[in-house]
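ingest -> validate -> predict -> emit
validate: passed (alphabet ok, no gaps, 85 aa)
predict: started
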Amino acid sequence: MTDGAAIPLKYSQAGAEVSPPLEWTGGPDTVASYVLLVHDMDAATGNGTDDLLHWLVWNIPGVRTVSVEAARMGRSLPTARGRSA
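emit:
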């Protein structure tokens, strides 16, 4: 996916509703863990000031730089290529 491009249908509610494969760089060498927060600022809820949380992953090991496509919900992330824990 290109940064800023539309999200492919596969990763949407209208598609297969699977998590996209993601990669990140530039974290500090001393990072203990990451949190990944996916929210939709364009889908206002409540009184119009809250956005919609799609999914949240926390305690991603600091040595990890990738997530896998279609990760299942559970207590831990599946092993992925790249720097995975």
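The two ends are 24 Å apart (CA to CA).
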